[in-house]
Specification:
133 residues, Arc Repressor Mutant, subunit A, mainly alpha, two-stranded antiparallel ribbon
């Protein structure tokens, strides 16, 4: 997969990817059963979504079984890749590209425990020692 390709999974595709990240490979039936625990979803809907995701190169699939009628799906993208791209898109759209505005707004709207504040400080201190490339 081209790493420069902009990944834009829909909300339903993201739900499927999250399932695959936890328990890949999985069949459509297995994914559908987990989706149904959250909200009713038809098998054919899940199948069609996963076929589209295969075309979009979000998932890979292999054939299994004696007659080759069953497919095993795995994610073709990592959770880190998707989270990073979605976060970058969100920062651009909502905060005009300002990560600091997003962080300050998030911290200002949340009740943050002393432990979380310490964790944030440690993270920031780590950036001083190892700035991102």
């Amino acid at each position: 997969m081209n790493k420069l390709k902009l990944l834009k999974p829909s909300e339903n595709e993201l739900a499927i990817l999250q399932i695959l990240w936890e328990r890949e490979p999985a069949t459509v039936k297995e994914v559908n059963e987990i989706l149904n625990q959250r909200k009713p979803t038809g098998y054919t809907t899940t199948l069609k979504l996963m076929q589209i995701m295969h075309e979009k190169e979000l998932v890979t699939r292999t054939t299994e079984g004696a007659k080759g009628k069953s497919h095993l799906y795995s994610s073709a993208v990592t959770e880190k890749q998707i989270n990073g791209q979605l976060l970058d898109q969100f920062i651009q759209r909502v905060f005009r590209g300002s990560a600091s505005s997003m962080v300050m707004r998030t911290i200002g709207r949340s009740e943050i425990s002393p432990e979380e504040i310490e964790e944030i400080r440690n993270f920031l201190d780590g950036l001083d020692d190892n700035p991102p490339s």
